[in-house]
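Quick one, tokens below. Sequence please?
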């Protein structure tokens, strides 16, 4: 029996429930998943079946959305997050983690959450989804990858001001990011000998010190040292403005970038709707759509399920490669 993917519901006042139903209608048994949430929050008219065993998801998916029921405190109003539902959102994530750790699910896919609602309603103490998953898994360092069929990128620093990047970007951080990325490419993407390109921090990778000194001070030397590991091919530091055209992308399996926009602008330009957020460094597979709760369009039939569909399909491919 095919193990399903566990899909946590995310904030039920956002677009999560409606894109879950749209993804099920598109995928059904081709990529079976079980939705973890309160059935009251599904769009009216949704055909669903509450399961007692996730193993039944494959058969059920032919005719109904498989659901593992997580009771929530309140109904959901599209576009208006309810803090009283925060505990349910957290319970959905925790249930998904337990399913993958126990082997009942092949991977975890997470729908978008709303951090403020979680803080207001449950005192949520984590910077975001990823850090919460890391805590549940008992790991202290994870890496965010954005992936599509055209490009995989990893930002070494993420949600910080650009002015803070040079101080946050340390040899230890970059070394661990490279190591986790290489391990993830091997274990979850089935790439035996990963090729990783590393962008420079400054324009033109510093241009010999004329546009910045970090490349010459330590980045190039670190890459040279780590490249002595013959299980991975490392190149760089590369000027970011020439790293993402088609010929360049053919020469690597993933690009490590130095800050958020350096990584996300190219992938969102190349494949905006199909980008998938992958967390590397967890002891299980985790993907998510590369968008937020979209409260402004929730419940209006306008939400595009493509990123969630791609996240589910990528989770399935990664599980098959593991």
């Amino acid at each position: 029996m095919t193990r399903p993917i566990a899909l946590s519901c995310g904030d039920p006042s956002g677009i999560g429930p409606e894109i879950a139903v749209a993804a099920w209608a598109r995928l059904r048994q081709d990529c079976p998943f079980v939705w973890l949430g309160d059935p009251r929050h599904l769009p009216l008219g949704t055909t669903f079946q509450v399961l007692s065993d996730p193993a039944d998801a494959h058969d059920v998916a032919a005719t109904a959305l498989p659901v593992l029921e997580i009771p929530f405190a309140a109904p959901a109003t599209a576009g208006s997050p309810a803090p009283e539902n925060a505990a349910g959102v957290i319970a959905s994530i925790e249930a998904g983690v337990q399913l993958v750790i126990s082997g009942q699910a092949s991977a975890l896919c997470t729908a978008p959450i709303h951090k403020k609602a979680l803080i207001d309603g449950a005192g949520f103490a984590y910077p975001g989804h990823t850090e919460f998953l890391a805590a549940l898994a008992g790991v202290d360092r994870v890496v965010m990858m954005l992936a599509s069929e055209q490009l995989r990128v990893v930002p070494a620093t993420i949600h910080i001001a650009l002015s803070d990047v040079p101080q946050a970007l340390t040899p230890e951080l970059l070394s661990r990011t490279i190591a986790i990325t290489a391990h993830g490419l091997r274990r979850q993407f089935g790439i035996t000998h990963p090729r990783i390109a590393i962008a420079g921090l400054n324009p033109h990778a510093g241009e010999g010190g004329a546009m910045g000194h970090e490349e010459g001070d330590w980045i190039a030397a670190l890459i040279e040292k780590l490249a002595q590991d013959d299980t991975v091919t490392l190149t760089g530091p590369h000027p970011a403005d020439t790293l993402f055209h088609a010929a360049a992308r053919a020469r690597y399996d993933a690009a490590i970038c130095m800050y958020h926009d350096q990584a996300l602008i190219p992938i969102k330009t190349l494949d905006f709707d199909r980008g998938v957020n992958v967390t590397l460094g967890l002891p299980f597979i985790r993907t998510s759509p590369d968008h937020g709760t979209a409260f402004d369009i929730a419940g209006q039939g306008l939400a595009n399920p493509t990123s969630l569909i791609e996240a589910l399909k990528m989770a399935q491919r990664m599980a098959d490669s593991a």
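Residues 51 and 289 are 25 Å apart (CA to CA). The longest strand covers residues 233-238.
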